[in-house]
Design brief:
It contains eleven helices and ten strands. The chain has a six-stranded mixed beta sheet with strand order 1-2-3-5-7-10, with helices on both faces. Helix 1 links the parallel strand 2 and strand 3.
Length: about 260
């Protein structure tokens, strides 16, 4: 049997693939453990500069496998399980979700946890937990409200009904919609662009964007200025200035 979650690294891009197509890539505790392992590997590998997440078959990820949820003896055990969305949010490198199909429940939360989201035109998105008697617990409401606004977020989490890729694009849940056959190539193209940039600056920009959500404007600007000064002091920043003056492509070393 093939692994239900795989990690491949090529040309400074790590690709994490949910690989349980017969179950719409629904996440199991085993897959959650593999997600944590993959993220730790990516964070520790200085050669990796961008991450692409995608799925096999007709789903990106359908969230948690419902049949596994009864294994938890109590709701408190369920609350304290290793959470795959937490694993993804601990990722240090810029991330791109290539949403090839259904992104439901925890699958939508993982997509929302990525920095950039692009989707196949056949993809569908939903927060269906309310139909089963609970709500999302991997950041669903906060991430949706930030991405698509409180009214659209309420529509999704209170009805549980799916939206199309076209609606997701209109609501700015995703940045681009592509034909399914072009999706992974486009995600790789974006990742290639990121890998060519100064990696410390790209990773710092990611942290800055995340922090900006939670700060008043004056504090966000001050924090950004501090991060800018840190980046400016790196060898890569000096290399960028030298390459600009010499009209050549910079050779960034992540130093």
């Amino acid at each position: 049997m093939s692994a239900p979650l795989t990690l491949a690294v090529e040309n400074r891009i790590a690709t994490i693939t949910y690989n349980r197509p017969e179950k719409l890539n629904a996440m199991t505790p085993e897959m959650a453990g593999l997600m944590w392992e993959a993220v730790r590997h990516v964070n520790d590998d200085n050669e990796v500069r961008a991450v692409v997440l995608t799925g096999t078959g007709k789903a990106f990820c359908a969230g948690s496998d419902i049949s596994d949820l009864d294994r938890y003896a109590t709701a408190w055990d369920f609350r304290n399980r290793p959470e795959y969305c937490d694993a993804l949010r601990s990722l240090l490198k810029p991330s791109i979700a290539a949403i090839n199909g259904y992104a439901m429940g925890g699958g939508l939360e993982m997509a929302l946890s990525c920095d950039i989201r692009i989707a196949a035109d056949t993809a569908k998105f939903a927060a269906p937990e309310v139909k089963l008697g609970w709500i999302g617990g991997g950041g669903m409401t906060a991430l949706l409200a930030h991405s698509i606004g409180p009214s659209n977020a309420a529509l999704m989490v209170m009805t549980g009904d799916p939206i199309s890729a076209a609606t997701a694009l209109d609501w700015r849940l995703v940045s681009e919609v592509r034909a399914p056959g072009d999706l992974l190539a486009r995600a790789t193209e974006i990742a290639d662009a990121i890998t060519s940039r100064a990696p410390i600056a790209a990773e710092t920009a990611r942290r800055n964007l995340q922090a900006a959500y939670n700060m008043p404007l004056e504090k966000a600007v001050a924090y950004e200025r501090d991060l800018q000064a840190i980046c400016f002091a790196t060898e890569d920043a000096a290399e960028g200035r030298a390459a600009f003056a010499e009209k050549r492509t910079p050779d960034f070393k992540r130093r």
